[in-house]
Amino acid sequence: MALNIIELYPHPDFVKGLGHIKLRNQLMKNTDKKLSKTKATQKAEALLDYAKE
């Protein structure tokens, strides 16, 4: 799953303009694993936090 995320968002600027819901939906749609909304939301929040740093 980490490789899928890196392919989707290779630079923090790709994440900064997205909101939690849009990012969550993209993660759920574009990852091989079946993510629950809760886990996808957690991943989206983590990505947004990492992008801020």
The description of the largest β-sheet is:
none
Alpha carbon gap, first and last residue: 22 Å
> Into how many domains do the coordinates divide?
1
Shape summary = globular
Give the helix proportion (percent range): over 70%
H and E string: HHHH
Number of strands: 0
Residue-averaged pLDDT: 88
Strand content: under 5%
Uncertain stretches of 5 or more adjacent residues:
none
Quick summary of this structure?
With 53 residues, the chain is mostly helical. The protein is built from four helices and no strands.
Task: Using brief descriptors, characterize the structure shown.
53 residues, mainly alpha, globular
3D architecture notes:
This protein is mainly α and 53 residues long. The chain has one domain (2-52). The protein contains four helices and no strands. Helix 3 crosses helix 4. The radius of gyration is 10 Å and the shape is globular.
Secondary structure elements and their pairing?
Layout: H1 2-8, H2 13-16, H3 20-30, H4 37-52
